[in-house]
Amino acid sequence: SLEFNEINNVPSRANAEKILTRLRRPVSGKGNFVIKRMNKLGKKADVSHMESENMEVEKIFEQLFSVREGEKLLKACQCYLSSTAGPIAGLLFISSQKVAFCSDRATKIASPNGELVRVHYKVPTPPEKIKGLNESENMEKPSQKYMEIVTVDDFEFCFMGFLNYRKGYCQCTLADVKIIQTQTGKTVENKPEWKATVKNDCTCTQSDLKLSCDGFQTVEAVDSSLMAKTGAECLINGGQPVASSSNLSFNYAWDTSFPFKPLSSQINCS
Q1: Are residues 80 and 152 in the same domain?
Q2: Which domain holds residue 28?
Q3: For the chain, how many structural domains are there in total?
Q4: What is the mean pLDDT of the chain?
Q5: Cβ proximity of 168 and 54 under 8 Å
Q6: Nearest to 50 by CA among 37, 36, 29
Q7: How confident is the model at residue 5 (pLDDT cuts 50, 70, 90)?
C-alpha cells in the first residue's frame, strides 16, 4: 500500500500522479457492474444497480460531476463510504483528473427556503488534494478490504465493502485500450512501415473492439483477421476477445501514422 510517509505529506504533481496511478490499479471483486437506471438525477435515482453497457457509466459520471476537457473515466467501483450516520452505499469513480464518490440513493435535506429536496451525497477529490492513501484488510476476514484517503486539509474518507474480491469488480472502460505506434524501419512502395499495437489494460476481456479509422490509408495489405476496415470503423481481432494485458499488432504503410482511437467494445468480466 501507499503509506503517508512515502509521499511526505506534501501534495505535488508527481505525488498526485503516484496516488492516481495507485488508484487506477484494478480492484478485483465480484460482478460486472454498470449503471441500470439514473432517471431524474438528484431525486429518487438509484446509482449503483448496474446492468447495461459501460458507456452509460461515463455519461452518468459526466452528469454527476463537473468534467474537465480531456478528462477520461478510468474505473467505477461499487463500495461503501464510512460516515457518522453509518455506511453509505454508492460508487467510487476514478478518472484521469479526480477521485469521486456518489451515494447510491438520494437523501432528503432542507433547502434554504425550508423545502425538503433529494440530493446525492457527492465527494469529488482531485489527486493533488490527496495527502495520503492507505489500504488495509480485516485481519479475521482478509477478503474485506478498506481504503482510506486523507486530503491536504485533513479530511478522511474511508471506503469499504470491497467484498468477495475477484477479477472484474472495478468496471473497465475504453480508456483501458491503448494504441502504441512505432516505425519498423522498413518501407513499402517508398512509404514507411508502421506497427500499430493495441493493448488492453483492462482486467477483463474486451471483444467486438472497434477503432475509429475514417480516412485510414495504406499501401501495404493489412491482415483482416487482425484489423478489418468497414467504412469509418476498424474491427480488431475479428471481433474476438482481446485478453487482459495482451498485445495485438498489425502493420501498415503510409507517409505518417494514423490517429486510431478506441470507438466501442463489449467488456466481459466473467
Answers
A1: yes
A2: 4-162
A3: 2
A4: 75
A5: no
A6: 36
A7: very low
| 154 and 69, same domain (yes or no) | yes
**Predicted model pTM:** 0.48
Grid cell, residue 13, equals 504533481
d(CA 205, CA 241): 6
Query: What is the distance between the alpha carbons of residues 196 and 113, in angstroms, rounded to a whole number?
Result: 59
**Cα separation of 173 and 72, whole Å?**
9
What pLDDT sits at residue 253?
Answer: 98
Q: Is the pLDDT of residue 115 over 90?
A: no
Nearest to 194 by CA among 228, 224, 217: 217
Rounded to an integer, what distance in angstroms lies between the CA atom of residue 205 and that of residue 124?
29
Pick 91 or 212 by higher pLDDT: 212
For residues 49 and 78, the answer to whether their CB atoms sit within 8 Å is no
CATH of the domain at 258: 2.60.40.290
| 40 and 134, same domain (yes or no) | yes
Check whether residue 51 and residue 184 sit in a common domain. Answer: no
Range in 8-12, 170-174, 180-184, 234-238 with the lowest mean pLDDT: 8-12
Query: Do 47 and 120 touch, CB atoms closer than 8 A?
Result: yes
The verdict on residue 168 lying in a domain is no
